[in-house]
């Protein structure tokens, strides 16, 4: 008979040299065998190092991944290095079941999970640090969680949990929780200093050092400074950032205490859909390297409405820099206390404070490109700087959109657990408060020359009253001043029992959410046009059975039932559908069936899933026309590795089928998510004289068709993308060359979400780019 899950976990920890820190993915578990195939056959292969996870377990207790009754992926620091992600969201492509549109720049991605319906941002994605969400709501309009977090050398690993027990723990996320674990330091002083550059002018310096301050008191300090024009070169340093992290850990005889602080100021150009064809259906010639913003057009007068002090309203103009794009200027501070008490009791408390600004600036396209002459009877025109614009020159309406958000959140997750021989019980209390203070000015479209750094067309050259900056009759699409605060209190209980090779677990969460949100929409005159003050109580649950077939294989089955509450969203939720009497709560039920196998030379984790959602709002905000969708999705996620001598092959695949079950689009596929995405990542280790070694690696991504809308009108074609890299180690020096999108594939990640029917605009994946770095490790 095989060991019980707890015993297996303790045994794995006991025999691991770095039991808590060595938690990388199987891609990092290269076999220590000679490169020659003949020699490899003559020597016994090593078994895989035990992987341990802490996400999705009661109180964050360590568990062997093979014993987990849920779908979770681990991404080590070495995996992150090989991925060389362009953003935090780009890294999430390593997690099966997740579709990521990271083509919008360093911030503000669109992330989708397991066919859950979403109009963009990341409705069903939580980003956590050391086990606690950086911001409890996964998405506000123009703000999703990955915007708040930056990847650097301070990360030990990332764990990505899909579905499973998510609805019961932490902030109750029903979709994906990505938990970034910070490096802690140890008895030995270790560190890295790295310089990176690229073919798009990147200048970046990373650093990290860790060690021991005194007996059992460890530190880790790290961060980066970076600047570049951006992968779509803007003609100025459009991407600038810096980050500093300190992490302190005190080891106790019966546990540990941890405190960390992470301060970030990082932003980059907001890349948007571009004109693929003009109003006559002719190709524009615009490619994936294009961005409209440039040094000559980045500063724009943006209109804001307000009270004139006499019962009316007036419009004022303020300068804003569209070159700042999207980003995060703030901090995440947190910590934890983990104690092993007497008689099998354990106590865990995790806490975190997030505070800062998450702003959005960019030129948003409005409609198809047209010729200059079509706007004035066939004549040439001029820009506002007096330059001539030929009649056949393409121009397009762009709105300088501004959304400025000041956010703050505090969360605390406390749990107490008791372990007996054959079962374990955990009770917990999660409390969180968060708030937002935001100002919008979006719409405001005016004609510009179509092209990087294109100038605004002079009002005298356009037969359109809205072109005049002083003209207020056109108004604003959305002119918003809003403030909101919310709080959540949740009690949860989870238990597991062991019946030979069978483990049963279940959990329940009772949650109360209070939300107050006041929106001054129309003229910003200090008078709220919409006030929401609501309190909702919900019960969510999960239950699973896990059967250990052998020491290295098992199966599990799980069901969970959860909800997504409405968040501060003047654009989609409250501004429209709430006024129609909806509670805006989305109900989600999921079923999972998983198989796990980990052998000496290969591993496979396969999870079949089916989910049903009810209540996701979709519609036209301007027309106040909304549907509450019901959807279904089913599919399978594959996460596997194959080892043969110095060769390794990693598989990451998702096959799914989605269907809208209600409304005018019933029978269609859910928008923006492919039915298939397959990623194959081979690598080969090389050894040379004098201790020099290298690894050559790559990834082939095969992405299926998608639709950019729920009406399934705009089809986004399938595509293949190839990445290639090499890492060479010479004593303490490490050199890395990474090529993203090797063949410069011009594929689309989305159409134009602001267009009805067929769209002339679309957003390309990022063009080919090359990064090079040299690091010194000590």
From TrEMBL:
It holds the Pfam family Plug. It is a multi-pass membrane protein. Its main location: membrane. SUPFAM superfamilies: Porins. The keyword Signal applies. Keywords: Cell outer membrane, Ion transport, Iron, Iron transport, Membrane, Receptor, Signal, Transmembrane, Transmembrane beta strand, Transport. It is found in: Cell outer membrane. InterPro entries: Beta-barrel_TonB_sf (IPR036942), Plug_dom (IPR012910), Plug_dom_sf (IPR037066), TonB-dep_rcpt-like (IPR039426). The keyword Iron applies. It comes from the Bacteria. Residues 65-175 form the TonB-dependent receptor plug domain. GO terms for cellular component: cell outer membrane. PANTHER family: CATECHOLATE SIDEROPHORE RECEPTOR FIU (PTHR32552:SF89), FERRICHROME IRON RECEPTOR-RELATED (PTHR32552). Belongs to the TonB-dependent receptor family. This is Outer membrane receptor protein involved in Fe transport. The lineage of its organism: Bacteria, Pseudomonadati, Pseudomonadota, Gammaproteobacteria, Cellvibrionales.
């Amino acid at each position: 008979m095989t060991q019980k899950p707890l015993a297996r976990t303790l045994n794995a920890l006991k025999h691991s040299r770095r039991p808590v820190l060595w938690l990388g993915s199987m891609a990092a578990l290269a076999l220590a065998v000679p490169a020659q195939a003949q020699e490899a056959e003559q020597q016994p292969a090593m078994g895989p190092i035990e992987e341990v996870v802490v996400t999705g377990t009661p109180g964050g207790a360590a568990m062997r991944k093979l014993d987990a009754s849920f779908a979770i992926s681990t991404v080590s620091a070495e995996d992150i290095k090989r991925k060389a992600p362009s953003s935090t969201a780009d890294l999430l492509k390593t997690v099966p079941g997740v579709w990521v549109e990271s083509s919008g720049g360093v911030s503000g991605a669109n992330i989708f999970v397991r066919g859950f319906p979403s109009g963009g941002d990341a409705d069903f994605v939580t980003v956590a640090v050391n086990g606690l969400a950086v911001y409890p709501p996964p998405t506000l309009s123009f703000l999703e969680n990955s915007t708040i977090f930056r990847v650097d050398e301070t990360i030990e690993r990332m764990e990505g949990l899909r579905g499973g027990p998510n609805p019961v723990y932490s902030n109750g996320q029903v979709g994906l929780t990505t938990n970034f674990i910070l490096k802690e330091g140890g008895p030995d002083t270790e560190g890295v200093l790295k310089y990176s550059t690229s073919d798009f002018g990147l200048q970046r310096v990373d650093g990290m050092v860790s060690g021991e301050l005194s007996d059992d008191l460890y530190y880790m300090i790290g961060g980066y400074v970076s600047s570049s024009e951006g992968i779509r070169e803007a003609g100025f340093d459009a991407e600038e950032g810096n980050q500093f992290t300190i992490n302190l850990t005190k080891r106790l005889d019966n546990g540990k205490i941890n405190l960390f602080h992470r301060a970030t100021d990082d932003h980059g150009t907001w890349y948007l859909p571009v004109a693929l064809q003009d109003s006559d259906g002719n190709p524009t010639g615009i490619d994936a390297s294009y961005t409209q913003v440039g040094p000559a057009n980045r500063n724009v007068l943006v209109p804001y409405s307000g009270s004139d002090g006499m019962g009316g309203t007036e419009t004022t103009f303020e300068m804003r820099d569209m070159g700042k794009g999207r980003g995060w200027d703030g901090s995440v501070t947190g910590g934890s206390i983990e104690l092993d008490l007497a008689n099998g009791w354990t106590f865990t408390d995790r806490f975190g404070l997030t505070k800062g600004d998450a702003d959005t600036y960019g030129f948003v396209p409005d409609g198809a490109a047209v010729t200059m002459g079509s706007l004035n009877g066939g004549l040439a025109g001029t820009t506002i700087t007096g330059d001539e614009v030929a009649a056949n020159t393409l121009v397009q309406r762009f709105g300088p959109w501004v959304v400025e958000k000041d956010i703050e959140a505090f969360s605390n997750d406390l749990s107490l657990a008791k372990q007996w021989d054959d079962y374990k019980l955990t009770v917990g209390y999660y409390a969180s408060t968060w708030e937002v203070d935001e100002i919008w000015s979006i719409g405001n479209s005016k004609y510009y020359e179509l092209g990087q750094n294109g100038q605004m067309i002079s009002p005298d050259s356009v037969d359109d009253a809205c072109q005049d900056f002083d003209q207020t009759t056109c108004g604003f699409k959305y002119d918003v001043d809003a403030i909101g605060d919310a709080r959540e209190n949740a009690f949860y209980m989870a238990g597991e029992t062991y019946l030979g090779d069978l483990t049963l677990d279940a959990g329940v969460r009772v949650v109360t959410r209070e939300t107050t949100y006041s929106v001054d929409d129309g003229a910003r005159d200090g008078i709220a046009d919409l006030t929401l003050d609501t309190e909702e109580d919900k019960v969510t649950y999960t239950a699973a059975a896990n059967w250990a077939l052998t020491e290295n294989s098992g199966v599990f089955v799980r069901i969970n039932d959860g909800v997504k509450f409405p968040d501060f969203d003047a654009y989609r939720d409250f501004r429209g559908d709430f006024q129609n009497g909806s509670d805006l709560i989305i109900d989600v039920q999921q079923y999972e069936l998983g198989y796990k196998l980990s052998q000496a030379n290969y591993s496979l984790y396969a999870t079949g899933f089916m989910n049903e959602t009810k209540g996701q709002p979709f519609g036209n905000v301007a027309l106040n026309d909304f549907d509450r969708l019901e959807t279904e999705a089913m599919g399978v996620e594959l996460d596997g590795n194959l080892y043969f001598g110095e060769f390794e092959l990693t598989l990451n695949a998702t096959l799914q089928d989605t269907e809208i079950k209600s409304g005018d689009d019933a029978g269609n596929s859910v928008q923006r998510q492919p039915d298939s995405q397959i990623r194959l990542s081979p690598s080969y280790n090389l050894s040379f004289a004098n201790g020099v070694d290298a690894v050559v690696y790559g990834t082939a991504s095969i992405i299926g068709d998608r639709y950019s809308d729920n009406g399934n009108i705009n089809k986004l074609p399938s595509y293949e993308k190839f990445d290639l890299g090499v890492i060479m180690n010479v004593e303490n020096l490490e050199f890395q060359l990474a090529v993203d999108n090797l063949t410069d594939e011009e594929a689309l990640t989305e159409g134009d979400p602001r267009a009805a029917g067929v769209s002339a605009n679309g957003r390309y994946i990022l063009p080919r780019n090359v990064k090079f770095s040299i690091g010194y490790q000590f």
